[in-house]
Amino acid sequence: MPRRPGPSARSRRLAQTLRKIRAEKGVSAAEVGKELGMSGSKINRIETCEIGIYLDDLEKVLDFYQVTQQRRVELLDIARHAEQRSWLRTRNAHFPADWQTWSDFEDEATGLRHYEPLGIPGLLQTSEYATSIIRATGGSLLNREVDELVSSRMARRGLLSKTQPLELHVILEESVLTRPFGESGALTRQLRHLSDEATRPNVTVQVLPADVSFHAAMAGAFILLEYDDEPSLVWLEQLSSSLFLEEEEHLDLYRAAWEELSTIAFPPEKTVEYLRHLAVQREQHG
47 and 22 in contact (C-beta within 8 Å)? Predict the structure, then answer.
């Protein structure tokens, strides 16, 4: 029997945002409901994606919160397409705001499986690495915006040490570990940080050796996000866009690719040893 799909990624994003805006305004669901002629329980159910919201009701909510015109247009557009599955987002001048969408989905995840052929994932980066890669990929970001994004990324590492920490499993191509960046010693410090993080009970890191032949994930990086009470998602990122996938047929493809990768990569224990060996080698050879 086919599985009944849960709320779409767009619906989940709309609910997340309304929940955050209300928290920022410091008002209760009951207060919002009373002002708009709805029950507090209805506001809660909208914010937890149990029910959808009509456009005219959304207009009233956004009026009450006095959101900016830009945010209003974005949220109304999401609501109009809330039933559509899979979500392509084109990156634009509002890149930091676009990043917030990813961060909110990451915040609510209980598990994250990340295959990365080109760089160290954000949750495992040092500030030096984060600064270098954000500058390289951020286009026309101002120095202030780069600093803000680096600070945000460093704060997000707290997901790995909170009371119920995120379960993170990362598979990296071996070439990621030798890509130079920053000043002398920066890569060594990143390797040591990566090996230390890999010893956390909720963090697993594997390296895919350079001599491995073609495999199912040759098309590029992907992230599988898993949730306790909501359907899983796949997130794909390109230079000018990002894509959330949520159809089961797509999820199954990426789950199968992940199983293959985790089988052919170095085991976790060997990976930690290898990372430490690389760091020592770099220290010895300057």
Answer: yes
